[in-house]
Amino acid sequence: MAPRKLDLTGHRYGALAVVAEAEPITYPSGSKAARWQCACDCGATVTIVGAKLRSGSTVTCGDRAAHRSGKAHPMFGKLREQSGNWRGDAITYTSAHQRVKAEHGPASDWRCACGCGRQAEEWAYLGTDPEPKVSTHADSEGSLYSTDPEHYAPLAKPCHRNFDVWQAQRRTGLTLGAAIVGAVAA
């Protein structure tokens, strides 16, 4: 019995709304994959392999400039509902950072948000989520994070470290010197 074919018409995957089935793709091995015509929130129309939509690996038309040009968010230009990687709040610290990268690209695509002029290297949690999560993983234990990519900014490594020290000092009430000594000792 052949597997039942899924009809993705009308489904939404991130910024993509499936409009209709498209011509399937035939790979060099001879296998075929269903493809779907999708309308992106930015106005573009693209054809995407169904497996990429269902897995979440393709969630926009791929035109980063179009998705960064809006006015919904001062840095990224999109609404949370348009987020291609918005799948709930039950994710780990590492998954939250992967979500940010999937949503906004590598931090290295950006200049450091602190204004120092350096190239960003990492996504930093800003501490702006009213309900942050606390990491229990050994590598990041006790670190706060958000499941919402809009609570992160691209920072250069030195700026990220300084920001984390400042956040820890602010959160714990320790003096800045004590927070720095604790961070260096760790």
Describe the structure in brief.
The chain has helices spanning 50-55, 64-68, 93-104, 157-172, 176-185, and strands at residues 12-13, 16-26, 32-40, 45-49, 122-125, 133-134, 144-145, 152-155.
Instruction: Count the beta strands.
Output: 8
Structural class call reads: alpha+beta
What shape does the CA trace take? elongated
Compute the CA-based radius of gyration. Answer: 20 Å
The termini sit apart by 59 Å
Estimate percent helicity. 25-40%
- Average pLDDT taken over every residue: 77
Low-confidence segments, ≥5 residues, pLDDT <50? 69-87
* Number of DSSP helical runs: 5
> What is the beta-strand fraction?
15-25%
The strand line-up of the biggest sheet is 1-2-3-4
Sheet of most strands: 4 strands, antiparallel
Please provide the ordered H/E string of secondary-structure elements: EEEEHHHEEEEHH
How many structural domains are formed by the residues? 2
Describe what you observe in this structure.
The structure is a single chain. The chain starts with 11 loop residues before the first strand and ends with a helix. Helix 4 packs across helix 5 (176-185). It has 5 helices and 8 strands, in the order E-E-E-E-H-H-H-E-E-E-E-H-H. By secondary structure, it is an alpha+beta fold. Mean pLDDT is 77; it is low at 69-87. The protein is elongated and about 65 Å long. The longest helix is centred in the last third of the chain and has 16 residues, at 157-172. The chain has a 4-stranded antiparallel beta sheet. The protein has a two-stranded antiparallel sheet with strand order 5-8. Strands 6-7 form a two-stranded antiparallel ribbon. The chain has 2 domains: 8-84, no CATH class; 87-186, no CATH class. The protein has helices at 50-55, 64-68, 93-104, 157-172, 176-185, and strands at residues 12-13, 16-26, 32-40, 45-49, 122-125, 133-134, 144-145, 152-155.
